[in-house]
Amino acid sequence: xxxxxxxxxxxxxxxxxxxxxxxxxxxxxxxxxxxxxxxxxxxxxxxxxxxxxxxxxxxxxxxxxxxxxxxxxxxxxxxxxxxxxxxxxxxxxxxxxxxxxxxxxxxxxxxxxxxxxxxxxxxxxxxxxxxxxxxxxxxxxxxxxxxxxxxxxxxxxxxxxxxxxxxxxxxxxxxxxxxxxxxxxxxxxxxxxxxxxxxxxxxx
Length: 204
What we know:
The chain is mainly alpha-helical and 204 residues long.
């Protein structure tokens, strides 16, 4: 598993952030066309994030819509302390966390047997089985741990950005990542060579 990505300051991301900020200013002024543009700009990103955490397609679309409604209602409250994308993702995070805690199917602990990873299978079947095993292992994590794993390793957010998204200290993010990784190692012995990022081996 790669280390969480460091925050990028590429020209492309700066331009995208400027475009997002302009849209947000228009949304705050009541421009319905702007919220539609922001919706289409973020729909795929939010759906990808939510589909691996909530795991129910019907709820994914519902949470995306709830997120955009919150953006519509709260655009005027954005103060520019973070990127627009981080702010939007934070709203989605809170909606997802609330829904996951309410939905028992999302919080059930799943047992994973060692024979789920079978090195004797052909490459294609083995890869599918491995992906399924990893997905099931992720589902067994407590909601906050599952969300930070998704944000760090699948979405590429830094620990600092995740702390903003989750509205918690950076050390809390690192602690959640640490415990999530330890649980994944226990559930997936075939992946025991996963190395922790240097700043996550001894979380505060």
